């Protein structure tokens, strides 16, 4: 059953009413993050009901010992887990001698959560009656500063409503945390040191194996009616991995008592001495104070929204959906640090592990290119460049390739492969294609060619070498084939000649070849440096071309479609619409062999190829392939509906496009896949953005210009978005009658609307 | 490196010289068993070097919690482990105050192990100098009685050679044992009770979850120069799961001291009160005494050999190989108990788990049919009949089949599937075919049709229903296809239209259909009973036939061969002979994806079909397919060389046949696959028997008669074997010049030699 309790609202995610069965889902949906850290919307005070506790720090991971039933050669030794980080938000509270716990109150009313996406804060308020009959009103606000990204702030206010109350606040930091998904029930954190000083507490711990050192800190202030008190804490708990203070205060009925807790992490990735760094950052935060920090935080979010907001009028659920997606993407990754990437669950859960999938290149980069400075996308590309050596090592040591062939990992934290299903890790090799495509896409969008001679070309060569070696010659077909792969549709394993994989393999070789020629002409010094470094010969280049020129592509002349793989038409081709609803989702209802031999498609596969290489195919071809494959697609991947939405829009199937749009944008809010408790689907949220910009807006970059073919779902009155195109910011507003363009920048640009050129002058509005 | 330390000998396995690096291998090779229990050749006394401790009881298993990296629907909850049983052989020994341990002696000489296969005992002798300079001569003999199959006997003799010695014997039984292959480091045995009485000790324990109750017992006698002493034991250890006695004795230099230990198991599968049963069986054994028990044991083995021996003259290694194989098969399974089956490692190790694979039907049944009473093979068939309900449940609940379709498990202890790799468990469905084929084979060989109306027909119907539902219709091919399988060649996963699978699927349907007609005519009451029970309609039968009549088989007209699967010829077809030796075994050197897309074949696949259905194909077809597939076969399964040996013999490729014969018969003795430390490959040993009888002897059953086409490797002078054919025992002796037949029985039979009929009279020799 899809849940449907989130209140429709333009700018906020709002839950009203307390329901213990929704706690874990809401913990995911109300998560906050600032690119450097984040956490699920766990209650600050102790909660004895069902909860999934999770705090996360970007770049800090744990290589958990691999768990498999039967070991296979080439499996990595570890699976990098998104690490549940020490808890700094915790505040145990005692009221008139009773531990306050929402799960044991006799009454909870006016319960309301709000995630204010415009301003970037999370608020929880309610009235509760404890077992001891004390009635309290509570309001808690929490935010993780964008400006000071090592710091979060909690303002926890309690007003006793029916009697005076002795309130004891017991804030703590605790490194004694575990992951829910440990393979071997092991602890991941080794406590090193606990320190306290006045109102400040510090717990330093390091990860086992990876030895990331983290100081988790807190500073607490107690206020009455907004005035700072000077209550001194006693220390109740100074274990090796936890420190907890206790503040006693007497609050008269009707008075507002509050604790303001500053907390966060300083990590050895950024600091030599993490304790000293923590002490300093507390001083900076205290100096600014809660109000100023929040103000600056709101301003930072305003700046983010200024660039990345999409407005939709006339459809509040659609509006809320897209903003939730954009908000989460920005909470997860702000592009400041090229060591980081975009984890599939961001800071909302620990499932899947690893921080980097092909999702980054295939789905996220377009969003970050268009809504941030181009350096952000460049950082994402550089992340892969920095891991090229490990991709070469992976191909060589684990998989038997040679001569500098690079296979990027399916899942990684540091460039090493860390996923261990052979059918994914060893066979889902198309990921290499998206990484090359992203280089092409970056240049196409930004016009910044310098990345290729500087870094990109080496990556392209390693990838081309991989495809060259991975293809094999079929005497039977007299062509090159690629056997034993898993395509983007993970409901097929060990198939031969996946159209998408073969196509992108050929493209990668051709593109690398072209760039070598271009760099040779335009950047001869870089060319020399690189060719010498990678020892690339003319003979090898010649062999590459013979593979790319003779690549085999499965197709059906009769149906006029490309085949997802050899033998696809042998399947029992019952369309999804004729599949009994009780059998879905098939990945939860069917055994794996049945999923595999069925015609059902988890996510765009042939259609992913049509998405990447749109201009290689005619619209008629697209339509035939879309109609065929859409009928078998079950969209059980979060990455699926967006691509179908874009293509449906292109084919003027607007009702379908709109349905897919809602599905992608509200996947988590409406919990389509019945798993939001485990966290949100962050990377596919970039696909939602693409559904509007590339789908409805029809945006493309061709020949260094922006092209549009705007469409609008009948359910909407209008929508608008902005594109940062080569340092000029273009705003596009679409209604049923017209499209308006306006430009923040200093020189005019020409855009194309349905292939017709339109001049847009700075700070003028043009209607098309 | 293949080891090569076993002395060639017609009747014994002999190791000379003590080498700590060989201990684990020898523990496997010198294992003993009696069908009901067995154990590795672990030393009785404490040994601090590398050892793999293992004792096993037939039918007693543990359902270990499944371990997988990523759970998939339909996976069984447990993997049934061959359980390391309580140790009853242990005797700690102290000599002049020093714990005797071969690993810490200053000198060990004249070390010799002998496994006397003719008489069924295992002997170990050596001279050792302890650190305290006491020199002793030791001789230990152990056997597990065939007659009293709950009892084993150890006679452990020590002669101090250079000084008098105080010898303390500390025999024990210990249920505090663990499996090396636990998934979660859990204990499998729960101790219940420890009891002692005079020289007898009892430890009763039960398995967790399955609650098999086992009393492990011992009785000890101390002798000096063969005369019973009356030393009373003290109890040194009476833990909850172990009991240990201590006997002190002073032995003069040159005198022979010995401990005779009776031990074994009584189990709740056979006894209400296992302790009482243990007490009784000790009395029976004591009453007979060591000498008589050993004598009866030798006589029992003589009877086994009388029927099952194969002699080979002129090639002692070949002779030793086949006897080792026959000996191990008989140690593992004697056919007395239809609850038992033939575990892949017998009583020699714990690897693989489960007791029953398709190996039983495809490889073992022919051996047991021809060398035992036909009831033994009937018991093996009945084992599957008794598990039909669970096979139906497995197909329905785990895999989504309906209407009584049965899929037998890939690995089982009790009828439930307990293996958990989707590519094996869910896709290696051809096992269902071998189970039907065994019914056909049993009737073909024994002429006992009664099994089919009584039990077999229901099994055949369940299996036919499975294939009917599992096949799907390809509009593209206008034929039925079977998609997404793993064939006998496990170096392919999720392939389409595996020739062997499609062929046996069609055969199963046709055979079930025929048997329904036959039973209908000849056993109308059984027919009515069964058809009503399984609710089989004419419509369904009609549908079966349309599947079997329109089954698709992949082939190459150009090469004149059947294709192992769709697309096989797209592979990079480099024959094994051109594969660098350093790359083998490929399953240890290559990542799984590379194995899968290679053309290399682990074991006979298309050729398995030619083996089962020989008379469906011409010899020319066989030769073309053999030549093609043999060139790609790496024989990395123990089940592979035997089938190739039989077919090579048929094709007069005698050198090849001989090479494969040696490989199959001495697989463990010469440790071809570098893994004998983990135990012996029991089930493939039946394939060795087939290599001689069906390969060189060319034995077939056609139209109720035995046919032969004898051939002989040039390395041999002659060979002979016996066949129990329909309660008459025919002996066949082959030399380069002639074949002799003689018959133990009461009526003449006609055999065919190279299609020529020969009359053999009882107790007369006929030469052909």
CATH H level, superfamily name of the domain at 12-308 in chain A = Glycoside hydrolase, family 65, N-terminal domain
Fraction of residues of chain A in helices? Answer: 25-40%
Q: List low-confidence stretches of chain A.
A: none
**How many E strands of chain A?**
33
CATH topology category name of the domain at 12-308 in chain A: Beta-galactosidase, Chain A, domain 5
Distance between the termini of chain A: 43 Å
- How would you describe the shape of chain A? globular
CATH class of the domain at 12-308 in chain A: Mainly Beta
Q: What would you call the quaternary organization?
A: homodimer
Architecture (CATH level 2) name of the domain at 12-308 in chain A: Distorted Sandwich
State Rg of chain A: 27 Å
Question: What features would you describe in this structure?
Answer:
The structure is a homodimer of 768-residue chains. The mean pLDDT of chain A is 96. The first copy, chain A, has 19 helices and 33 strands. Chain A is an alpha+beta fold. The longest helix of chain A has 35 residues, at 274-308. Chain A has a domain at 12-308: Glycoside hydrolase, family 65, N-terminal domain (Beta-galactosidase, Chain A, domain 5, Distorted Sandwich), CATH 2.70.98. In chain A, the strands form eight sheets. In chain A, strands 1, 9, 10, 11, 12, 14, 15, 16, 17 and 20 form a ten-stranded antiparallel beta sheet that branches. Chain A has a five-stranded antiparallel beta sheet with strand order 8-7-13-19-18, with no helix packed on it. A five-stranded antiparallel beta sheet of chain A has the order 21-28-29-30-33. Chains A and B meet through strand 22, helix 13 and helix 14 of A and strand 22, helix 13 and helix 14 of B.
């Amino acid at each position: 059953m899809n849940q449907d309790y989130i209140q429709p609202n333009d700018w906020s995610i709002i839950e009203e009413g307390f329901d213990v069965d929704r706690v874990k889902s809401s913990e995911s949906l109300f998560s906050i993050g600032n690119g450097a850290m984040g956490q699920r919307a766990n209650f600050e005070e102790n909660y004895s009901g069902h909860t999934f506790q999770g705090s996360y720090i970007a770049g800090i991971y744990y290589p958990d010992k691999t768990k498999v039933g039967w070991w296979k050669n080439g499996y990595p030794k570890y699976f990098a887990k998104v690490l549940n980080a020490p808890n700094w938000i915790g505040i145990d509270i005692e009221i008139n001698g009773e531990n306050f716990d929402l799960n044991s109150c006799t009454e909870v009313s006016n319960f309301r959560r709000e995630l204010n996406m415009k301003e970037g804060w999370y608020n929880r308020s309610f009235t509760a009656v404890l077992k001891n009959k004390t009635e309290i009103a509570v309001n808690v606000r929490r935010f993780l500063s964008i400006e000071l990204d090592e710091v979060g702030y909690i303002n926890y206010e309690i007003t006793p409503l029916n009697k005076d109350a002795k309130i004891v606040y017991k804030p703590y930091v605790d490194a004694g945390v575990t992951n829910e998904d440990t393979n071997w029930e092991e602890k991941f954190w080794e406590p090193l040191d606990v320190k306290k000083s006045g109102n400040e507490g510090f717990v330093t711990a390091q990860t086992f194996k990876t030895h990331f050192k983290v100081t988790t800190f807190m500073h607490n202030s107690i206020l009455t009616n907004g005035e700072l008190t000077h209550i001194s804490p006693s220390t109740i708990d100074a274990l090796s991995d936890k420190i907890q203070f206790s503040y006693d205060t007497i609050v008269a009925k009707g008075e507002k008592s509050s604790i303001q807790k500053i907390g966060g992490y300083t990590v050895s990735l950024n600091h030599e001495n993490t304790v000293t760094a923590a002490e300093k950052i507390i001083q900076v935060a205290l100096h600014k104070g809660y109000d100023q920090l929040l103000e600056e935080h709101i301003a930072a979010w305003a700046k983010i929204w200024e660039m990345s907001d999409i407005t939709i009028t006339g459809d509040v659920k659609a509006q809320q959906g897209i903003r939730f997606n954009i908000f989460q993407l920005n909470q997860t990754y702000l592009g400041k640090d090229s060591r980081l990437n975009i984890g599939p669950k961001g800071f909302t859960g620990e499932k899947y592990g690893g921080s980097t999938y092909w999702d980054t290149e295939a789905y996220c980069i377009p969003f970050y290119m268009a809504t941030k400075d181009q350096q952000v996308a460049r950082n994402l590309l550089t992340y892969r460049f920095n891991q090229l050596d490990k991709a070469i090592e992976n191909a060589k040591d684990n998989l038997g390739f040679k001569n500098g062939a690079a296979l990027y990992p399916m899942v990684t934290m540091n460039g090493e492969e860390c996923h261990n299903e052979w059918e994914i890790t060893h066979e889902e090799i198309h990921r290499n294609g998206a990484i090359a495509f992203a280089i092409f896409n970056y240049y196409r969008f930004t016009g910044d060619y310098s990345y290729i001679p500087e870094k990109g070309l080496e990556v392209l060569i390693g990838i081309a070498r991989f495809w060259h070696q991975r293809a094999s010659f079929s005497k039977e077909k007299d062509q090159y084939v690629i056997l034993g792969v898993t395509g983007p549709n993970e409901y097929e394993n060990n198939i031969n000649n996946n159209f998408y994989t073969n196509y992108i393999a050929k493209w990668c070789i051709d593109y690398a070849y072209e760039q070598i020629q271009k760099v040779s002409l335009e950047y001869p010094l870089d060319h020399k440096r690189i060719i010498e470094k990678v020892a690339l010969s003319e003979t090898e280049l010649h062999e590459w071309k013979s593979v790319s020129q003779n690549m085999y592509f499965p197709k059906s002349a009769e149906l006029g479609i490309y085949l997802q793989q050899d033998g696809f038409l042998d399947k029992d081709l019952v369309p999804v619409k004729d599949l009994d609803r009780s059998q879905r989702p098939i990945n939860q209802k069917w055994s794996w062999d049945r999923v595999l031999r069925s015609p059902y498609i988890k996510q765009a596969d042939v259609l992913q190829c049509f998405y990447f290489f749109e201009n290689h195919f005619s619209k008629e071809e697209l339509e035939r392939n879309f109609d065929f494959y859409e009928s078998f697609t079950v969209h059980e991947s979060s990455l699926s509906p967006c691509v179908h939405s874009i293509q449906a829009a292109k084919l003027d199937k607007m009702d379908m496009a709109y349905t897919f749009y809602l599905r992608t944008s509200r996947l988590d809010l409406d919990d389509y896949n019945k798993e939001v408790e485990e966290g949100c689907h962050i990377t596919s949220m970039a696909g939602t953005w693409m559904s509007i910009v590339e789908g409805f807006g029809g945006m493309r970059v061709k020949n260094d210009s922006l092209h549009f073919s705007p469409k609008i779902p009948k359910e909407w009155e209008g929508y608008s978005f902005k594109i940062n195109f080569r340092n000029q910011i273009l705003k596009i507003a679409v209604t049923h009658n017209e499209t308006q363009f306006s430009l923040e920048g200093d020189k005019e640009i020409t855009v194309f609307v349905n292939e017709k050129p339109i001049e847009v002058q700075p700070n003028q509005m043009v209607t098309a």
